[in-house]
Amino acid sequence: MWRCNCGAINRSDEQSCHGCGATKADILSFDTEQLKSSCHNRLEEEHKKAEQHLAESGRRKKQAKKIGIIGGILAVIAFIVVTIVIPKIKIQKDFSRAISLLDDGYYSSAEHILDRLDDVDSLNAKKYERAVLFYEEGKYIPAVTLLERTHNYSDSEDYLIKSTNLLAENYYQQGDYLPCIRLCESKQTYPDAYHAACYCHAVELKDKEYYTEAIDFFEKAGNYLDSVELKHTCEIGEKYKQAISYMRNGGLSSAIAIFEEIGSYESSSEYLTLCKTYAKYKSYWVAKSSKYYDKTTGETSSYTASGGLNIVVKPKENGDVIFMVNEKLATLSGNVLSYSDDYWGDCTFNLSTGIERVNWGNQIIDTTYEKLEK
Asked: What's the DSSP call for residue 121?
């Protein structure tokens, strides 16, 4: 069988195509030259296609390489911007904000920002330069605030001492004694203004009778004016206050000892006499026996008693005296103390006889006490 160019299939004994009439000899004949030409043309075409593909591939590789290089450069630039440029811009912005706050008097807010920037060494020079300007303008608080954060840049320590001393002087002249004192102590610099401020503040405390605190500041004032003499006066004043406290609370022996020590200071002589006059009433009595008398039947009975009476005397500065019997308020008439008990009712105690009398319903109870001597 053979196939014609028209596509018809013929038997092997057929000499011409039954479809188109073409002869078998023509269809099966082989043209070598035509095949060579056809092959050559096909190879040329494939070679051109291959060259075009290589050229396109090379162009794409170059473009991809170029894009990669550009991307890498952009990534480096972005990294530098994010990690270096932007932080530097923010640091400068924050620093400028802090300077503005210092200039406007918002010191705490400015210090908060500066503390966050404290480890940025590149700002030390700017802090120093701005601090010097503040110093020259007489703005010593901003100057000190910056200078103590310059980490010893240049001669910042000298400027810090000068700014502190001038600021302390300003505080003193304005009567702000405590800020002056705290500033100097925090910077460990002690100009004349410091000792003067300590003296003036101590005098204020003395006038308010805060003697213990005043003594501390007179000590800090050293030999400034009459600090030593006033300190001694405060020491006596503090003892005087302590003696009065003892007197008010019934500690008459302690009060007497102090009043005798300080002599004629203020009303100490008067209070000494008062304490000595009433000290004899301060005592403790131990119960020995009780005698019961029934007012209805006239019967009497005796028992061994227990317990005691604690008599406390509290003189006051105006001369009045408070008497207490077992923490019950009492009044003194002659040698007899009268007081009231929540359970027993009205009671009397005779300091001469040591007998307490209780009127309890229809009974009279007399209890004999013995004074406990020290």
From this structure: G
